[in-house]
Amino acid sequence: MRQSKLFTKTRREAPADEVAKNAQLLIRGGFVHKEMAGVYSYLPLGLRVLTKIENIIREEMDAIGGQEIRMATLHPSEKWKTTGGWDAVDVLFKIQSRTEKEYALGQSEEEIVTPIAQEYALSYKDLPVAIYQIGQKYRDELRAKSGVMRGREFGMKDMYSFHETQEDFEKFYEIVKASYLKAFNRCGLEVKVTEASGGAFSEKLSYEFMALSDAGEDDILYCNACTHCVNVEIAKEKEGNACPKCGKGKLMKARAVEVGNVFDLGQKYPKAFGFTYKDTEGKEQTPIVGCYGFGTSRLVGTIVETFADEKGMVWPEGVAPFAIHLVSLGKDSDEISKTADALYDDLVRAGVEVLYDDRDMRAGEKFADSDLLGIPKRIVVGKDAVNTGEFEVVNRATGEVVKTSRAKLVG
RNA sequence: CGGGGUGUCGUAUACCGGUAGUACGCUUGCUUUGGGAGCAAGAUGACGGAGUUCGAUUCUCCGCACCCCGACCA
Predict the structure, then answer these.
(1) Were A380 and a residue from A51, A184, A253, A392 both cysteine, which residue would form a disulfide, CB within 3.0 to 4.6 Å?
(2) Is 80 exceeded by the pLDDT of residue A369?
(3) Closest nucleotide to A34: CA versus each C1'
(4) Is this structure's pTM higher than 0.90?
């Protein structure tokens, strides 16, 4: 895409009242627009990142047999009253129509997905089944904060699985956990699988996927030798203790962001809706349900917080809005511009996602913008490129510069 | 929801009980062009409502919005 056509611009300064690094940089870069506290619109660059993240988790869910659907976010109040959530869930947004009919805005989808599964999973032959969606969630947080990390409207992938037996559920539970680790890795993040309380969801343990970051809201204890990790909310151990799992390592304390979670929901929701299926003997059975959340928009913020430096954002390759930032230092139709134009066309033809800074601006401003946007590789086209046919390729994360021929770039 | 703070051009800021100034951005022109250029000319602003006052952007109160701490985040 030609940057001269991009309708957003960068800003030299962040709004004074934004303290969160992710909000400051995402707004300065024109990735998001703040509508109100805790609610953000995604602009072209931000949407590209969000879409990358969504596609990663979509691919991983599809790979383990998840089937994507799109559920309504405007919910009938009756279903929430059926499960008791209407009165029990205090973050539930409740709205009223002109005729005083009551609705809820989706903050999770158990109330919606359970009746849908019920309609089709009539027999043991129809199980197990895993259904997911990627979309907006609404939660009436008393206090939105930390930029896109804790909003009142946010993006999430949520999957629900239905099983005949606890054993079958637990098998799938492990498959999802592995697939989540893969997805977070593809987003450039290392996460800890953390034991946590099931909250009101479940009396059983749940597992939270925690990205280590000072911008987080949770404290975790993790073993420096094995994968053991527990949320301090339920930890019996203390910082510095020997790891109860491997015995070798020490428990370290860290601040972390919860970017995903998985729950054993048991039979609560099928029971509330009278959802049963026929087993091999024709008897009514109640399925076991699992729930799996993955915070897509929170990941955008977490990634900014994790990798940004003093110059701006730094996107891992898997989620970067573009793979290459092609920066031309030419003007009008000089040789430099022609060289850059030609390289841009070649890159596009080669299927490379490239943002082409063809604007008529000074070099300093272009470099500053490029640093801020954080695209992984920058190709600079100046006099040298015209004279030598070699292009300067700068790695945004490391600052490393390599000279590369055109043939290599367009591969 | 409890506590604290802040609301001034698009953004960041200054000053002030009496004319609202600066920088960046924006518009026009010329110059400049490898790390946020220069000159000139322009356009754009006091969150809303009451009150005090001859006069309020400034002081007071109420609302609203935003930020921070806490609680909350099935």
Answers:
(1) A392
(2) yes
(3) B66
(4) yes
- Identify the pLDDT of residue A352: 97
Neighbour count for residue A271 (Cβ, 10 Å): 15
Per the structure, the residues numbered 297 to 356 in protein chain A that have their CB within 7 angstroms of any atom of strand B are: 311, 329, 331
Contact A295, A134 (CB under 8 A): no
Give the nucleotide with minimal C1' distance to the Cα of A150: B73
Contacting residues 176-235/A vs strand B (CB within 7 A): 199-201, 217
Q: Tokens 């204890």 identify what position? A: A221
Whether A16 CB is under 7 Å from strand B: yes
The mean pLDDT value for A234-253 works out to: 94
Strand ranges of the sheet holding A354-357, from the earlier edge strand across to the other edge: A354-357, A324-328, A377-381, A390-395, A401-405
Strand B and A10 CB separated by under 7 Å: yes
Amino acid A306 CA to nucleotide B26 C1' distance, rounded Å: 34
Distance A359 CA to B31 C1' (A): 19
According to DSSP, the residues that pair with A95 across neighbouring strands are A103
The Å distance, CA of A56 to C1' of B39, is 52
pLDDT by residue (tens digit) across A56-113? 999 999 999 999 999 999 999 999 999 999 999 999 999 999 899 999 999 999 999 9
Write down the ipTM of this complex: 0.94
Q: How far apart are the C-alpha atoms of A385 and A364, rounded to whole Å? A: 18
- Going from the N-terminus, what domains does chain A have, and what CATH number goes with each? 7-307 (3.30.930.10), 324-410 (3.40.50.800)
Residues 6+ apart with CB under 8 A from A262: A173, A176, A177, A180, A206, A207, A290, A291, A292, A293
Strand B bases, protein C-beta under 7 A: 1-2, 5, 11-13, 24-25, 32-37, 65-74
In single-letter form, the type of residue at position A117 comes to: A
User: pLDDT tens, A303-331?
Assistant: 999 999 999 999 999 999 999 999 999 98
Q: Cα–Cα distances in Å, from A103 out to A18, A63, A99, A138?
A: 33, 35, 11, 13
pLDDT digits 0-9 by tens, A16-63 = 989 999 999 999 999 999 999 999 999 999 999 999 999 999 999 999
CA of A404: how far to CAs of A238, A249, A300, A390, A411, in Å? Answer: 52, 45, 31, 5, 11
